[in-house]
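Side project, low priority. Logging it here so it doesn't get lost.
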Amino acid sequence: MTRRRTCLLAPIVLTIMVACDPSGTFDRTAPEPRVAEVSVSPTVDVVEPDPVELARERTGFHGKIDPLSPALSAEMRGTTWKRRCPVPLEDLRVLHFNYWGFNGVIKRGPLVTNADVAQDLLWVFRQLFAARFPIKRVGLSTEFVAERFQPTISSNRSVTASFNCRPVVTPLGPGDAFSQHAFGLAIDINPVQNPFVTSDGFVRNTEARPYVDRSEDLPGMIHPGDVVVRSFAAIGWEWGGNWSGGKDYMHFSLLGR
């Protein structure tokens, strides 16, 4: 090192030594050492998704079961879950799994259900994936408000969902008793393609009326003895399409109600 460089470094070293006492305590009376300005990006603790893992999750069936996150619990509280609900939030689980969309593309969606049946339902959706049974969309339920019930609606919202703290609802209106959905022990598959049809043939949703003829074999429809019915029967769940009188073709439940 040249003498000139030594002289340049000496003030810096001296300044640092003066700024601290022998115990290492900062001396606020000493001038702060000057340092060169350096542009440094703030450190953010972000875990980037692994593109290889994301690609792998879209190449076959992959599913997982998680407790409800604080954000999801907050979203559900007061809407699809309320204090009078028969099951606490901590007894619910959220499933994320792959399924075949109507466009032939693998999709992935969340489904909230009772913790006691989460593993069984994940097994069912594995069977449906293997059979390439198409599902329009898997998602969370929306809040049911009895006062807003309308005798006829026109909606193409065909969301496969499970938990929803609501009463039993038929095309004729809501009842008084809790639905099995309120316990997370029921699920509706492709509601538009598998409507509730009353004994006299009435279907509340006009968008679902093209699916009243169950001899049709349109995408997303469920038929007696098909892979959907067989898979749910294997875990002990019953199909609303087997009910006497009105038939709820979308509906599967543990207790058959």
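Brief comment: Residues 240 and 248 are 5 Å apart (CA to CA).
Revisit when time allows.
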